Amino acid sequence: MATAATITAWVTLFTGLYALAASVGELRQPGSWAAMLDEFEKREGLRFLTGLFMLTLGAAVYLVNPYNPADWLSVAVTIMGAAMVVEGLVMLAFGRAYLHFFNRYLGGVNRVWALLGAGFGVVAICLAALRF
């Protein structure tokens, strides 16, 4: 169970697990991220729900994580929560244009992004494990 002292570590752990699992999925089925971006770009309802989910999840991370300026991981998790809020708002306000940018400019390098995501996931999991 999470305590105030371990919330940052738990958020980091689950973020790392998410990044690693999503990256493994893309590496196993190349092109799935590009197909997902295509679907998001075409579907208004999906963009709306995604933006709402990102806004809500980001707000939860931002509000629950104990901000400690002396702890760099706590600061990073707080910034991540704030960035998720901003991304959710951008998705709600400018979803099609925002996704079109990512689909057009980043869609062709999925393997590189998947490897970077997997590396980030492993590092985040290790950082979280050091905090427990």
TrEMBL record:
The chain crosses the membrane at residues 45-65, 72-99, 111-130. The keyword Membrane applies. This is Uncharacterized protein. It comes from the Bacteria. Keywords: Membrane, Transmembrane, Transmembrane helix.
